[in-house]
Design brief:
Layout (H helix, E strand, L loop, with lengths): L2 E2 H6 L5 E3 L8 E2 L4 E3 L32 H10 L2 H8 L11 H13 L7 H6 L2 H7 L6 H9 L4 H9 L14 H20 L7 E6 L2 E2 L6 E2 L5 E3 L2 E14 L2 E10 L1
Helix pairs in contact: 2-4, 3-4, 3-9
């Protein structure tokens, strides 16, 4: 029995008839199938945004350095700011950042992956980080001036004059600020040792690390490039401890100075 194609379309059947025999197209018969026309799908890129942009500034402050407070809480709980105040006397006036704030800011910058003074600008732009720390971050220029307080041209010249015949490298003596920083480091190690009294043995790996530099004063290293080669010590698997609201938390990781 045949069905008129036009009537089939008017009754709501939309599609293309696919004949399984050689009967004329346009007749719906037993044994014929209907291939439905697919509705074109729009691209997701054509859709509207699922959010609206609010031009009003957010009331709260955000930060991309969410792990930084843990580092500084550890530093403060170990008494580093107090040690800095005792041993490093640089500022002549009460204005500006104190020595402990400078030291903490350098530790923070190093901890989040910074490797040059200009990285302080990125930290200064993060208002959420400033709120968590409780103080502003020094500018690159202020940080540079602080570092130069640990530099002594007189000690450098003395070390140059004391070089033996044929010697190139030299190690200048420490000025008062650098000696004070060494005392801060000793206080830190003592406090860690006091909190981890059961740790009787500490493995220390000492090595000279080449730091490339284009400064005029930088000499050639044994590898050929210009730079400095400070001595560094790494403590392997030392246990750090710091107070938390639920007691003492520990973290086993390598430390260095």
């Amino acid at each position: 029995m045949g069905v008129d194609f036009q009537k089939a379309m008017e009754s709501g059947i939309r599609g293309v008839l696919v004949a399984k025999t050689k009967s004329p197209i346009g007749v719906l018969e037993r044994g014929y199938g209907i291939n439905l026309v697919k509705t074109p799908k729009s691209s997701p890129a054509e859709a509207d945004f699922l959010f609206e942009i609010d031009p009003e500034p957010a009331a709260e402050s955000l930060t991309s350095f969410g792990g930084a407070p843990l580092l500084l809480r550890t530093l403060r709980s170990l008494g580093v700011p107090e040690s800095v105040a005792r041993h490093i006397k640089i500022k002549q006036r009460q204005r500006g950042y104190d020595e402990a704030t400078f030291v903490e800011s350098f530790v923070l910058m190093n901890g989040v992956g910074g490797d040059c003074l200009d990285d302080f600008d990125r930290l200064r732009a993060d208002r959420g980080l400033e709120e968590m720390l409780g103080h502003a971050i020094p500018s690159p220029e202020a940080a540079r001036k602080f570092l130069y307080e640990f530099h002594s041209e007189e000690n450098i010249e003395t070390a140059r004059q004391q070089r033996g015949l044929g010697e190139i490298a030299y190690i200048p003596g420490e000025n008062a600020a650098l000696r004070g920083l060494g005392e801060v480091n000793r206080d830190l190690v003592r406090e860690v040792g006091r909190r981890c009294a059961d740790q009787k043995i500490a493995t220390v790996d000492q090595d000279a690390t080449i730091i490339e530099s284009r400064k005029q004063e930088a000499l050639r290293t044994y590898e050929g490039e210009r730079g400095y080669q400070p001595m560094r010590r790494y403590g392997q698997k030392r246990i750090w401890c710091w107070p938390t609201s639920s007691g003492m938390a520990t973290c086993q990781r390598p430390i260095r100075d």
